[in-house]
Amino acid sequence: MDEVQQAIKQQVEAHPVILFMKGTPQFPQCGFSMKASQALAGCEVEFAYVNVLEDERIRQGVKDYGNWPTIPQLYVNGELVGGSDIILQMYESGELETLVKDAVGKQQA
Amino acid sequence: MTAERVRMIERRLRDALPVDHAEVVDESHLHAGHPGARDGRGHFRILVVSQAFSGCSPLQRHRLVYDAMGEAMNTDIHALSIRALAPEEYATPKA
Known about the structure:
The complex is a heterodimer of chains A (about 110) and B (about 100).
Chain A: H1 3-14, E1 17-21, H2 31-42, E2 48-51, H3 56-66, E3 73-76, E4 79-82, H4 84-93, H5 95-108
Parallel strand pairs in A: 1-2
Antiparallel strand pairs in A: 1-3, 3-4
Helix pairs in contact in A: 1-3, 2-4
Chain B: H1 2-16, E1 19-26, E2 42-50, H2 58-69, H3 72-75, E3 77-85, H4 87-90
Parallel strand pairs in B: 2-3
Antiparallel strand pairs in B: 1-2
């Protein structure tokens, strides 16, 4: 595993809920990243994020890491949950809130 | 360009999956001028109905669609909105 993959792995394992996105939750740079971060914010848990626009190696590297060709990508407990369609679908059904609250709760327990 | 890409996406879906129904809409115009649109790749919305999705999680369904797109994800497609349904989920609910 190269340096970039190692760095992504560390991030994903260090944070129970982490979103790789374009821009930041305050200043998203893409509509899909905006919707994804808003859905997470709506779950009222703290989540980590990585702005992939700050590092081209991460932008490409996270696509390889998750074997997923697009951004945003949400990881919970080290596992890829999906991109914006899946995040929104799970937010609307309430599954997302349950998933992220469980993940954050486990870490605090 | 639009029509060609839409046909290409539909062909790739049909080559990779047993497709009951597919709709592909080019939404690139909605994103013109945004940073992701600069390299010329497009934004598309896909509805695809296939028995391949039965019993699959949303993540697995999206992977099947991305796999079907193959190299086009790097050359023609910037973003895909995907609705991937099993035939029984697509069936019109009876009134």
